[in-house]
Amino acid sequence: MKSYTHRLDRFISQNSPHSISDTRLLVAQKRIIVDGLVAHSTHQKVTQFTPVELDGRCLQNNKPIYIMLHKPQGIVSATKDSKHKTVLDLIDHPQKEQLHIVGRLDFNTTGLVLLTNDGAWSRQISLPQTKLAKVYEVTLSKPLTDEYIQVFKQGIYFGYEDITTKPADLEILSDYKARLSLVEGKYHQVKRMFGFFQNEVLALHRVSVGNISVDGLESGQYKEFSID
User: Fold this and answer.
1) Residues 6 or more apart from 162 whose CB is under 8 A from it?
2) CA-to-CA distance for 47 and 40, rounded, in angstroms?
3) Using CA atoms, how far apart are residues 113 and 102, in angstroms rounded to an integer?
4) E.C. number, please (predicted)?
């Protein structure tokens, strides 16, 4: 579901038999209730989650939905796919068809996937200006050295896009495993950053996005959460 903000008169015209010009009289007659209160202006703002009633009939009463999912390997980060099971197939929710994915993961990448019907929220956390940290655990084919830490901190040049990645924090957990924190999400960025060292990523797992963590969820499990 896409987020929107309408003026009350436009919302009424789109969701009832009344026209935009009718709304002024409906407001004067106190026949419209917006967010529990009698409407006071045709210019009032109505979002996708603003409850609206007309003559006692509910025109809208959507609730925001926020879901975190622990995506297993081999699941597509999509709402529909003709060949493979999708993240939506793992969710049993009465409004799941309203959900969209916030930050997709590759087919074989595991970990945190966020789904919501709140377009404004998903755009906000996806904006580069937000600088929301995304944390990954990475398993490599070759041993890691301290040089990786410095190079990742400086940023790595991607010639195809003619860009340099923003500074990233790398913590070496063992010879072949590391924890990486990024504030951006270029195409296959993690694999390409380690590719700078000709070091193949064998497994990639997203642990968290901002303060939202997949810890505590088994593979394939999901739960709703609040952003308040």
Assistant:
1) none
2) 16
3) 7
4) 5.4.99.-
Instruction: For the beta carbon of residue 200, count every other beta carbon within 10 angstroms.
Output: 12
Tell me the pTM. Answer: 0.86
Contact 212, 114 (CB under 8 A): yes
Amino acid residing at 152: F
Residue 53 structure tokens? 């009633």
Give the pLDDT of residue 3.
66
Would you state the structure tokens that stand for residue 210, as one six-digit string? 């901002």
* Longest Cα–Cα distance in the chain: 74
Q: Is the pLDDT of residue 99 over 80?
A: yes
Partner residues linked to 5 by β-bridges = 47
Structure tokens at 189: 């960025």
What domains does the chain contain, in order, with CATH numbers? 5-60 (3.10.290.10), 63-131+218-227 (3.30.70.580), 133-209 (3.30.70.1560)
118 is catalytic: no
186-214 pLDDT tens trace = 889 999 999 999 999 999 999 999 999 99
Q: What share of the chain is helix, strand, coil (3-state, %, to 5)?
A: 20, 30, 45
Check 106, 162, 175, 228 and give the catalytic one.
106
